[in-house]
Amino acid sequence: MKDFLIPFIRRAWNERVKFAKYVIVGVSSVAIDISLLIVCADILSINPTVSVVLSQAIVLTFNFTLNKKWSFGSVGKAHQELVRYLILATWNYVFSVSAMYVGNEQWGIHHVAVRVLSIACMVLWNFALFRFWVYRERAGEKE
């Protein structure tokens, strides 16, 4: 156990700057996402599920660009990373829209609460997948 735990803690400690940047980009993305949801659903009276669909295009562009350049400092080929990012984003999108549909339209939970909970779930898997799959530098993959 000690042979696993100490290297794991060291590796996690070494990732702290990337994680802090990821959190800053994530918090900014959430602020944009929730603001757009409130504007679309509460001010413009657009259906909350449709509002999530609209906000995602803006938030995904913002999130990909800042995480690639700033959080992870990736120099990999943008188009290859974008494909991996979009695969993950597609899963997150399906999860978000499904959560909004079930949580808000089926169970009657307030749309902002549903969105915050779905985002919290996605944070759990996104950092690891961004770090070790989406923005992972591979041999011969520099721009």
In short:
The protein has 143 residues and is an all-alpha fold. Helix content is 83%, strand content 0%.
General description of the model:
- The structure is a single chain.
- The protein is mostly helical and 143 residues long.
- It has one domain.
- 83% of the residues lie in helices and 0% in strands.
- The protein is built from five helices and no strands.
- It has helices at 2-14, 16-43, 48-71, 78-106, 111-134.
- α4 runs antiparallel to α5 (111-134).
- It starts with a helix and ends in a 9-residue tail after the last helix.
Strand content: under 5%
Q: What is the tally of beta strands?
A: 0
Tell me the helix content. over 70%
Indicate the mean pLDDT.
87
Give, in order, the helices and strands: HHHHH
What count of structural domains? Answer: 1
DSSP helix count? 5
> Which geometry do the CA atoms define?
globular
Unreliable spans: none
Structural category: mainly alpha
Question: Describe the biggest sheet?
Answer: none
Measured between the Cα atoms of the first and last residue, the distance is 40 Å
How large is the radius of gyration? 17 Å
Topology:
Elements: H1 2-14, H2 16-43, H3 48-71, H4 78-106, H5 111-134
